[in-house]
Design a protein that fits this description.
This protein is an all-beta fold and 88 residues long. It has no helices and 6 strands.
Amino acid sequence: MVKAIQNNRVIVRPDDPEKKTSGGIIIPDMAVGKPMTGTVALTGKQSEDDIPLAEGDRVTYLVGAGIEITLDGVSYLLMKKTEILMVE
């Protein structure tokens, strides 16, 4: 795993997209959009202007945010902290 990243960056593990509706309808892969939520895996040093983030926080981010990276066979998104809209 990565030990450190730039202060204004965060690594997020995206949630798996829903493949079934609450009513039980299976959604085909073509129709499943990219997730907009995930869990913080690593964050850069906090500044006074940043949203407070810590490993394990659940976040909602912009559609298409970040770049996809693979670490130890797991897919993550490396994004700017400004692309995060909300912390749960």
